[in-house]
Each structure stands twice: as structure tokens, then as C-alpha cells.
């Protein structure tokens, strides 16, 4: 058979197999069996197998092996990279391995003693398998008994089978991701209970059925009393554990009374009883809920939590039609809380006016999206070093046709309840990119626009693609967009969130943590996230500079940021003493009403043209003096990164006569204020040049600022023979240098 006919014959086999309807419907293992058997028969090889790369990329495991002579299938073999480096190197280069004499071929001979000789394998043909363009496995064909020269038709056939498996992998990966998204839409991530959206769909479906039956229906919305105090006192992790325990308690009731159960938001749960035969059952369920919560929740032997709840009920036992039962029960819950915590209220039709008002607002919100009434206002972010506006934060406002500009606290909760936060986020992202383009055309000082991300957006698998499309559409550099995520989101150990942040970071978009210090994020988790900036929450800035507690908290955040090489933004700066304290402690940027309220884009452009805040900076914040082989450096007050660069130029010029010799410095920083991250990085970069010029001892005279002293340690260079010490007085510093061989005598 000539090559053309052979090529057609081989490929017709795989085309016929993969196009069969029954093949597409088979599970993965049966598909692989068919493919491997086809390979063995078409190419007349004894052994055909599929191997998968392990998660650590250090081995391949045999998922399935077909042996032609016995028609057996095997699995679970494993080959390690450290034992077969040549083979792994060859296959990872995405090339076919066509070893006609496998026992002597440099790519495969590592298998000879342990694998090839015992099985009498003489020739091998291996093709790489990919998932989304990444090497993930191998299709291996093994010929026994004699060496074999593989022709071009056989190579092409093996590659096609490997591609078929690659497509199978990609389809399965897509299905898995799609199923995860569906799970997130249907179920609450924390408790595993039904989500509000899925729960609402269930209720709507059940009502249409029960209307044809002679029975009642009831919905119980259960609010946990004073639960925010648990979160504040014990942290998000403990609060989440308690919520899961409460969900388990309610699940017992749901099973006992044949109810559906949901965590509709935060600390609020709901039980839906679609079929209630007797009106008296309504009170029985209430009693069961209250009785179940009377039992304390124990997290360990030392921690006991007593939980109570308030209940709002929507039911048709009085002959009233159930209209939007969740909202009706929520109104009843609100009324019950106003009367007495721990009680319950049954929704009354007299409250329908309030319900209809909410529904009208919902309609207005939906209309506002269509009419582009949600717009961004921008609050300037001021650079500590220069006083110029370097960035802005986009804050949503509702431009209502009759009520004027509506602040976000009045409509964001409703948008969240309606499940429209993702849509609102998309509106804000596009507006920010469009306005960035306009700010750039006006040659402003703006370097980036910050946009807040909602949790719903982080769980959207299309987010990275959406942002990339907007950046391209409006010609915005990736560094021109900064995405803010609240600390609570990174406190969740979620692969989806972690992967989403990695995908966004890979675009070049900057990420920052908003309201830092209010959540309970793990520092180890923060360390491994692609974050470049943290924002100090306004609640800690409010008490500055007088509150000792707020000083301690903010100093801790500043120290953390300096150590992790993160920039800092202080939110809610409203008075000059706050600004000065934050500058003296090395905060990089400021935001607040001291500088400007949030502005519409036209007002922002006017503000940028008229305002160029000049923050106090010393014209000459340092003095230099060289005596013999000791350079004295005195640094005072605020120092900009530009001043640091000038200082290093002056130092290089001053020590020119002793360059190449060993020399030392005495650096007096008792009156220096901690610097920005830009200054910190500038010092680290330029200090290494001085080390090459002979600097090998430094004595620092330090003051009382813990942040300043910590930042000095962070800026200390590392080099063989170099030493640095800190002292409180100049004479101590000189005495140490004398012992080290540097003296003014």
C-alpha cells in the first residue's frame, strides 16, 4: 500500500470512530478503550497506552494500556522524570518521539533495563497530549519483537489520535468548569445550601403546582440575631463555622417537615414548605426552629455560642395569594425585629404597599441599567511624595431622573438581592476604561483608575476575557486599570478566587485589597496572591493622630506593607493632622474629603486643571560630610525618591577620592520620616553601587520610630563582608567603627 492510500486508510478509521453517535455519548474510559484498540489494530502494534502528567510535573501515570495479543486493559503504572530525564525533555518539547530502535535511541534507552527488555519492546512511537495548549500527557505505541521504521502516515495517525485525546481532555475541562459555575449559581459556597436565585426558582415552580391542590404553602425567613457581633468579636472564620453549624441544624428541620432550605444572604436562612395540609403546622415549624437553636453550638470544649433567631413568615393559610413570598417574608422579618428579637411575624396584606414599593424600585433599577443611569464618580488619590493626583477611584452613583443623584447605600443592597452586581460591575469597568481614554487625551497626571470588584464578578469565568476586551477597545494599558477586592474575599480559601486573581494579574492589571484591616485574611494567603497595593480602611484613619489603638493598628499595616513590598493608600483622610501623621509614617497615597469629594468626569477634569496640591518637602533633606574614610550622612523630615537619587549622586561624587578603598558611613536618621515604597526601592537599588565602591560598614543612629527603624532594616543591602549596626548615639557608632578599623584619629 503506497503512503497516500495508507494515510487515507488510517485516518478514515479514526474519523469513523469519533463521528459515531454512540462514541460521543460514552464515558471517558470507554472512549479511550476504543481509541487504543483502534491504534493497535490499525498500526499492528502490541501495546498502546495513554499516560497523564502528574500535578507536580515530575512523573507520568498510565491511565490505560491495551495489550493486543491478550486484549487486556491495564493501568496504574508510573514513570518518574528523575529516572528518565532524556525522555521527559524530548516529549516536553512537544515533539513526536519516533524511536525505530528504542533500546539504543538516546530519548528512550533509559527504559531499556527496567522496561523495554523485560517486555521485548523494540520500537516506540510517542505523541504528546495537550490541554488548553499545555503539555499534559503522552500517547505511547510500543512494537515488540523487532525494530520498526515509522513512516509519515503512521506518524500523522499517532498525532491525530493524540489530538483526539487532547480534544477530549479540553471538553472535559470545559464541562468541569461549567459544572462548577452552575454549582455556584445553585448552591451557597459556604454552607452548601441552595442559593437565593435557585431557591426562588424552586418556589415559583412549586407555587404553580400547589395552586391546583387543596393545601397551603409557607415560607420562613430566619434572621440570626446580632450575628454581626459574632463576626466582629471572633472573626470571619469563626462566624463562617457557626453559620455552617446553623445550616446543619436547619437541615434537620427541613428533612423532618419536607422543606427546601436556603441561605438567602449573610446570616439569613429560609425554609420553604410547599405542601402544608393543616394551618396548625405553621406554628409547629416555628417551634421546631426555635427549639433547635436553643441548643448551644460548640466549636470546641472551651467555646460555646448561644444563638437565637427572629422569623418572618409568608403563607396563604388566611386565603391570601402568595405574591413574591421571599420578599413578603423579609418584610415580615423586618417587622418582627422592630417589635422584639426572638419572635416571629406572619406577613399581612396590609404590608403589601411596602412590598410593591420595593418592586417598583426594582423595576426602576432594571430601567436604570437600560438607560445608562448608573455612572461613575471619581475620587482623587494623591501621591505622598509630589502632591499630584496619580489615580482615582471609581464610585458608582445613580443619576435618577426625578430624585437626582442617589448615593450607593440606597440602591446597592437591592442590586445585590436582585443578583445584578455582576452587571453593575461590567457597567463600571467599561465606564472607567472609556473615561481613562479621555483623561489620557487631556494629558492629565492620572496613571490609573481603581474599580471595585464584587464577589459575583470574581466568580465569573469570563471576567478576564471581558477586561481584556475593554482594554483593547479603549486602548487602555493594563497598568491603567486597578481592581480593588475586599479583604473578606481573600480570606476564603477558594481555588476559583485564586485562579481568577492570577488570570487578572497575568493581563498586567494591578490588584489592591480594599478596606484592609477590617477582615481576617491569612497573611500566608496574602503573601501568595498577586496583590501590589493595600488600602487602609477609613475606620482606622478616623482616630488618627490621637487614638493610640488606631496608631498601633495602622503602624502594623504599614510595617506589613513595607515588608511585603506593597504600596499603601490611606482612605478617608479628612483633616490635616491625619495627613501629616500618615506622611510621617511612610504612607504612599492619600484619598479623602481633605482633597476632594467624588467628582463626575467633567468636574474631575476641571479639578485636575485647577489643583496641584503641594505637600511640604524639604528642599535639602540631607547633609553629607566626609572625614578620612568615614562619610557622615544626616537625613531629616520627608525625603522623596527623587531626593534620594540626588543624594546618591552627591555621595558618589564626594567619596570619589576613596573609591576602591574600604570606607564606612555614619547615618543619622533620628529626625527622618519613613519613606514611600518608591523611596525604599530606590535606596535598595543604589546602595548596591556603593558596596561595589568599597563601602563595607554602616552605623545608623536611629530614633524612636519603629516603622522607620524597620524600613531601614528592609533597605539594608546583602553582600559579603558588609556589616550594619544601629545605635542611639553618635559616640556609640564611632566606637563600633573604631573596633571595625575605621577611626577619625
TrEMBL record:
Domain GGDEF: start-end pairs: 215-349
The organism's place on the tree of life at top rank: Bacteria
Domain EAL: 358-612
One Pfam family here: GAF
MF terms in GO: cyclic-guanylate-specific phosphodiesterase activity
PANTHER family: CYCLIC DI-GMP PHOSPHODIESTERASE PDEF, OXYGEN SENSOR PROTEIN DOSP
Stated name of the protein: Uncharacterized protein
Organism of origin: Saccharobesus litoralis
Amino acid at each position: 500500500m503506497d503512503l497516500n492510500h495508507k494515510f487515507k486508510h488510517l485516518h478514515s478509521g479514526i474519523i469513523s470512530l469519533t463521528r459515531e453517535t454512540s462514541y460521543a455519548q460514552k464515558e471517558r474510559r470507554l472512549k479511550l478503550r476504543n481509541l487504543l484498540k483502534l491504534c493497535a489494530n490499525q498500526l499492528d502494534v502490541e501495546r498502546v497506552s495513554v499516560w497523564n502528567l502528574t500535578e507536580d510535573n515530575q512523573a507520568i501515570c498510565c491511565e490505560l494500556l491495551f495489550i493486543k495479543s491478550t486484549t487486556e486493559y491495564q493501568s496504574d503504572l508510573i514513570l518518574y522524570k528523575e529516572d528518565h530525564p532524556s525522555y521527559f525533555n524530548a516529549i516536553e518539547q512537544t515533539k513526536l518521539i519516533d524511536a525505530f530502535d528504542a533500546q539504543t535511541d538516546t530519548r528512550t534507552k533509559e527504559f531499556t533495563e527496567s522496561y523495554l527488555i523485560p517486555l521485548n519492546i523494540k520500537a516506540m512511537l510517542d505523541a504528546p497530549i495537550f490541554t488548553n495548549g499545555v503539555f499534559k500527557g503522552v500517547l505511547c505505541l510500543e512494537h515488540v519483537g523487532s525494530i520498526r521504521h515509522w513512516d509519515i502516515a503512521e506518524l500523522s495517525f499517532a498525532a491525530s489520535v493524540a489530538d483526539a485525546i487532547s480534544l477530549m481532555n479540553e471538553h472535559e475541562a470545559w464541562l468541569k468548569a461549567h459544572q462548577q459555575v452552575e454549582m455556584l449559581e445553585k448552591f451557597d459556597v459556604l454552607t452548601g445550601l441552595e442559593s437565593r436565585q435557585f431557591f426562588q426558582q424552586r418556589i415559583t415552580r412549586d407555587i404553580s403546582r400547589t395552586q391546583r391542590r387543596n393545601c397551603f404553602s409557607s415560607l420562613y425567613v430566619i434572621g440570626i440575631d446580632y450575628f454581626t457581633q459574632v463576626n466582629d468579636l471572633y472573626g470571619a472564620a469563626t462566624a463562617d463555622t457557626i453559620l455552617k453549624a446553623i445550616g446543619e441544624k436547619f437541615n434537620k428541620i427541613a428533612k423532618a417537615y419536607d422543606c427546601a432550605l436556603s441561605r438567602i444572604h449573610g446570616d439569613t436562612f429560609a425554609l420553604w414548605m410547599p405542601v402544608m395540609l393543616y394551618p396548625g403546622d405553621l406554628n409547629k415549624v416555628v417551634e421546631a426552629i426555635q427549639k433547635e437553636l436553643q441548643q448551644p453550638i460548640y466549636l470546641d470544649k472551651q467555646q460555646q455560642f448561644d444563638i437565637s433567631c427572629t422569623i418572618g413568615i409568608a403563607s396563604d393559610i388566611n386565603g391570601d395569594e402568595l405574591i413574591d413570598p421571599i420578599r413578603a417574608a423579609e418584610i415580615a422579618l423586618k417587622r418582627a425585629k422592630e417589635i422584639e428579637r426572638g419572635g416571629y411575624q406572619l406577613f399581612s396584606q396590609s404590608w403589601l404597599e411596602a412590598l410593591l414599593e420595593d418592586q417598583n424600585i426594582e423595576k426602576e433599577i432594571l430601567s436604570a441599567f437600560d438607560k445608562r443611569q448608573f455612572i461613575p464618580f471619581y475620587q482623587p488619590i494623591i501621591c505622598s511624595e509630589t502632591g499630584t493626583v496619580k489615580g482615582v477611584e471609581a464610585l458608582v452613583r445613580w443619576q435618577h431622573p426625578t430624585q437626582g443623584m442617589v448615593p450607593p447605600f440606597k440602591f446597592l443592597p437591592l442590586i445585590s438581592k436582585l443578583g445584578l452586581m455582576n452587571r453593575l460591575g461590567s457597567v463600571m469597568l467599561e465606564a472607567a476604561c472609556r473615561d481613562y481614554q479621555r483623561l489620557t487625551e487631556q494629558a492629565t497626571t492620572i496613571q490609573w483608575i481603581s474599580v471595585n470588584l464584587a464577589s459575583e464578578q470574581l466568580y465569573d469565568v469570563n471576567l478576564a476575557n471581558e477586561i481584556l476586551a475593554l482594554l483593547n477597545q479603549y486602548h487602555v494599558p493594563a497598568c491603567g486599570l486597578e481592581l480593588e477586592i475586599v479583604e473578606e474575599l481573600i480570606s476564603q480559601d477558594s481555588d476559583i478566587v485564586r485562579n481568577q486573581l492570577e488570570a487578572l494579574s497575568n493581563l498586567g492589571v494591578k490588584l489592591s485589597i480594599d478596606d484592609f484591616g477590617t477582615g481576617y485574611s491569612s497573611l500566608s494567603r496574602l503573601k501568595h496572591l498577586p496583590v501590589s497595593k493595600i488600602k487602609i480602611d477609613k475606620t482606622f484613619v478616623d482616630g488618627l493622630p490621637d487614638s493610640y489603638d488606631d496608631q498601633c493598628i495602622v503602624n502594623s499595616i504599614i510595617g506589613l506593607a513595607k515588608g511585603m513590598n506593597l504600596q499603601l493608600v490611606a482612605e478617608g483622610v479628612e483633616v490635616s493632622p491625619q495627613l501629616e501623621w500618615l506622611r510621617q509614617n511612610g504612607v504612599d497615597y492619600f484619598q479623602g474629603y481633605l482633597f476632594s469629594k467624588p467628582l463626575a468626569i467633567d468636574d474631575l477634569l476641571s479639578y485636575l486643571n485647577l489643583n496641584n496640591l503641594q505637600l511640604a518637602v524639604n528642599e535639602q533633606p540631607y547633609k553629607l560630610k566626609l572625614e578620612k574614610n568615614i562619610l557622615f550622612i544626616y537625613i531629616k523630615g520627608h525625603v522623596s525618591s527623587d531626593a534620594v537619587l540626588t543624594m546618591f549622586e552627591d555621595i558618589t561624587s564626594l567619596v570619589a577620592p576613596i573609591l576602591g578603598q574600604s570606607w564606612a558611613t555614619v547615618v543619622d536618621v533620628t529626625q527622618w520620616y519613613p519613606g514611600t515604597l518608591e523611596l525604599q526601592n530606590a535606596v535598595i537599588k543604589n546602595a548596591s553601587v556603593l558596596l561595589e565602591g568599597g563601602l563595607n560598614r554602616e552605623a545608623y543612629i536611629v530614633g524612636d520610630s519603629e516603622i522607620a527603624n524597620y524600613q531601614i532594616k528592609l533597605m539594608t543591602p546583602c553582600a559579603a563582608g558588609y556589616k550594619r549596626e544601629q545605635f542611639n548615639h553618635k559616640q556609640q557608632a564611632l566606637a563600633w567603627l573604631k573596633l571595625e578599623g575605621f577611626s577619625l584619629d
